[in-house]
User: Fold this.
Amino acid sequence: MPTETTMIFTGDSFITRRLPEDGYEGFGALHRIIQDFQVRFTNLEITVHDEEGYPDAQSGGTWAMTEPPVLDDLLRYGFNLFNTANNHAVDYGHGGLLATIANLNKRGCISAGAGRNLAAACRPAYLETKDARVALIGACSTGFPTGIAGNQSPTMQGRPGLNPLRFNTTYHVTRENFEHLEGIASATNLNAWQQRLIDLGYEPPLPEGSLNFGGLQFVASEEDYLSTTVHPGDMQRIRAAIDEATRQADYAIVSIHAHEALDGDPAKPAEFLREFAHEAIDCGADAIIGHGPHELRGIEIYNGKPIFYSLGNFIFQTETVTTQPADAFEKHAMPTDTGIGSYMDSRSQNGTRGYPTEPHIWTSVMAGIRFTDGAATQIELYPIDLSMDKPRSRRGTPTPAAGTETLEYLADLSGEFGTKIRIRDGVGLVDIR
Assistant:
């Protein structure tokens, strides 16, 4: 008899409110869908602790912290596998990150993507199912350098943080524009300090024909465009983790948190993300699970394996955090004793700007994959709605979506990759084999 392993994946869970004791309308239906799968994944887009960490000088937008019992609520949905590598992982420093991992471990939650040092952050996590062992590797391309985990050395412990997927950005400009930039840099002494560091031997010389302009890399080309490529060292490290996972498990899943977009369009993945996803599959990954831009991106089937460039949001309760550090209020020139409600009203101009006005933020899908004898055979897409039109106190909580609008939109995005989504009884289906 063929052996089937089933997995369901969701996007960002930015959860700040407790589940009602008796659930809510639509919760039971979501729970039944999720529970029907053996592997049940979400991205934990928040730190979960009792203020064990100090707020970092920078954040992923909203300083993300909530009380540990919300993990019990995510378990009530049915999740059993979590990604912790995202741009909010160190919103409350290393203390907040390590406390989050401790709270996950206390509940037996299996997670990947962040850890006490780089080796721990990149290490695959393993989930045992009835017929298969499944490995998860988590990585993140979005965030600040202070959030990146560090290696151990023979004489020094490593640094807590997330498993990074950095990338190199090159701005290609015409010769005329290149010379114009050179003139501005020379006239303003923009690169004087960097040149001194190069002269002293602390920085390597710039490649021939390139210009560092305020930290951005420019080269002369025949036309103007931007290109991004994967950081080779990070790719090599993640490749090694995938290789280990394929030796130790039946399936290797790679989770990547990435906000970066192509040509500024949040619905299109950046060039380096496509490169990364293909290379990860080439070295053995069975599926790539993307999230980060808080909205859907297209689905690609590459060498018979699915790439979800973004699954958008599952829970998005950013406006009902309990507290924010002084930095948040000072950034918006507000008194530091401002209430959170007033702060959120000001930031969104009473709901007339930002995420509250973006329809694609509030609709998404849960993506199920059915594997038979080690090969992905079908994708099932269950649309969800996060109640954009409800007040802040109830917005951002998922329910099954009525109609096919979200699936039709995702079908359009996926058409760019040659992926066809058919819709049957309100569920999107992709036949792989």
Summary: The chain has two domains: 4-154+158-162+233-431, 167-228. The domain at 4-154+158-162+233-431 is CATH 3.60.21.10 (Purple Acid Phosphatase; chain A, domain 2). The first helix runs from residue 27 to 35.
